[in-house]
Amino acid sequence: MTDERMLTFLHAFDREKPAYLNELEQYSRENNVPVIRPQMQSLLRLLVTWGRPVRILEVGTAVGFSALLMSEYAPQGCQITTIEKYEKRIPAARENFERAGKSDCITLLEGDAAEILPSLRDDGAYDFIFMDAAKGQYIHFLPDILRLLAPAGLLVSDNVLQEGELIESKYAVIRRNRTIHNRMREYLYQLTHCEELETTILPVADGVALSAKRR
Hints:
The protein is of the alpha/beta class. The protein has helices at about 5-10, 20-30, 40-50, 65-75, 90-100, 115-120, 140-150, 180-195; strands at about 55-60, 80-85, 105-110, 125-130, 150-160, 195-200, 210-215.
């Protein structure tokens, strides 16, 4: 969403990540595993450092990169719960958590978030929620996400602009992407018109929505 030269310039100021995260990021890119982009990494690091959340919920683990990134910048004693349904990625994520020595602070729940989220009964338990799963499902997860988000908590929704396709008419989008296009537009509408939330949408990486829950 930003000129590549500008991105290169801005990334030159990024602080170095722990070596194991650099290795995991490289592995993910080489094996076509989704990993949050550098811009999103910087924003996530800032938000977690500033907000100091003690309970984090992530929807969409992949191989564990973003959960591990958040664990590096969260306060001591923070507990992260992350959900993943793709069976081939779950063993890799567990291994990555173990190798990084983070198994005690990161809990991986296996299965479909549509089934797991309603089973999480601690209403208002999470002061930071990171949505990074199938974009077409965000709208279906939202009622439980709102229930689980603590007062004054922050919801971070990644990849909300669909590589810029979201600004196009649905008829300009290839047919197989129209359902996601419609659902994501509805999701952003719900976020920005929900009385419980204050939301801003930023053109960072592939678009991110930041939603603060009113007290």
